Amino acid sequence: MSLTDQFKVIIFDCYGTLADWERGIYVALQPLLARFPSSASWTRKEALLAFTEIEKDLQAKEPSLLYRDLLAKAYEAMANTLSAQADPTSTADFSAEGRAFGDSIPAWPIFPDTCDALRVLEKHYKLVILSNVDHASFAHTHAKLSGVTDSAELPTYTLPVPNPNAHWLPQTTPNSRSPFSLILTAQDTGAYKPDPQGMLAALQIIEKEFGVGKDGVLVVAQSLFHDIEPSSKLGVSTVWIDRQGACMGLETINEPPKWLRRFETLGEMAAAVETNA
After folding, report:
1. Per DSSP, which regions of 196-248 are E strands?
2. Three-state secondary-structure class, residue 49
3. Do both 218 and 253 map to the same domain?
4. Residues near 261 by Cβ (< 8 Å), separated by ≥ 6?
5. Same domain (yes/no): 169, 252
6. Separation between Cα atoms, residue 253 and residue 128, nearest integer Å
7. Of 74, 106, 138, which residue constitutes the final position of a domain?
8. Disulfide engineering: 222 pairs with which of 17, 117, 147, 210, CB 3.0-4.6 Å?
């Protein structure tokens, strides 16, 4: 069965799948890592895995914390640990640096194949975002994914004020060039993936708005930990975008979940959909 025969809706993870969060995080961490002997020699993988363990712990403990604030808190926790290792008597305050790190999401780059692939895929499916992010931070990424380069247009790509009884269908916004039919963030669902609360909310809204049940939904993501494994446990079909060189989201999986298809880029998947392969 080809990918276009059964599925009507794709739920995308954003950061790691559409945007290169590993590059964004690693670049933003560099000044901190270079400052301390214990981290100056870390490999890229060592640095990212050290950070993601702190981040995952905070997401589980504080699911209501906005993502940019969670990033800031994770940065401060890492900085305090490194500082204490270098000088146990240090009283350095990393709060300002943490806030700057949390505000770095708009600078995280989009993978080069993403935007063209989304334009192909939106011809065949309703596209949905389910992302561990907050509204204000995602606005910049959303604009990039929509092909917007003029900052004056940014308000069009900003999510509305969160409402537990509402959700955003961006293509209903006047003049929107968004490829997405529905956007949900952790700020909307009150949970960070892999908590299934977000996916269950997305499935419920998709059935209500588009008349598509779980069997017609496909999850497309890079992270086995955040997306592929928990979606598979809910009985939702998945496609793994196995971004080469990635390390975040893969580190805790001993038995990889079963996915329908595997591609190294979203562009490869879009090509397969176009040719009905």
Report:
1. 217-221, 237-241
2. helix
3. yes
4. 3, 239, 240, 269, 272
5. yes
6. 25
7. 106
8. 17
Q: Which residues contact 239 (CB under 8 A, 6 or more apart)?
A: 3, 218, 219, 220, 221, 259, 260, 261, 262, 263, 269
Give Cβ neighbours of residue 166 (< 8 Å, ≥ 6 apart): 160
Burial label for 261, CB within 10 Å (0-12, 13-18, 19+), is middle
Q: How far from 61 is each of 51, 58, 64, CA to CA, in Å?
A: 16, 5, 9
Q: Which domain holds residue 160?
A: 3-20+109-274
Q: Are residues 195 and 116 in the same domain?
A: yes
The pTM for the full model equals 0.94
Q: What is the CATH number of the domain that holds 73?
A: 1.10.150.750
Q: Comparing C-alpha atoms, which of 7, 12, 3, 6 is closest to residue 231?
A: 12
Would the pLDDT of 152 be above 60? yes
Q: Does residue 251 carry a pLDDT above 70? A: no
Return the pLDDT at 277. 64
* pLDDT at 255 > cutoff 80: no
Q: Are residues 130 and 51 in the same domain?
A: no
Tokens of 89: 């008597």
106, 140, 174 - which closes a domain: 106
If one counts the domains in the chain, the total is: 2
* 87 Cβ contact list (under 8 Å, min separation 6): none
Active site residues per annotation:
13
Which residue reads 């989201």 in tokens? 249
Per-residue pLDDT reduced to its tens digit, 72-93: 999 999 999 999 998 888 888 9
Residues 6+ apart with CB under 8 A from 152: none
CA distances to 196, 201, 219 from 230, rounded to whole Å, are 7, 14, 10
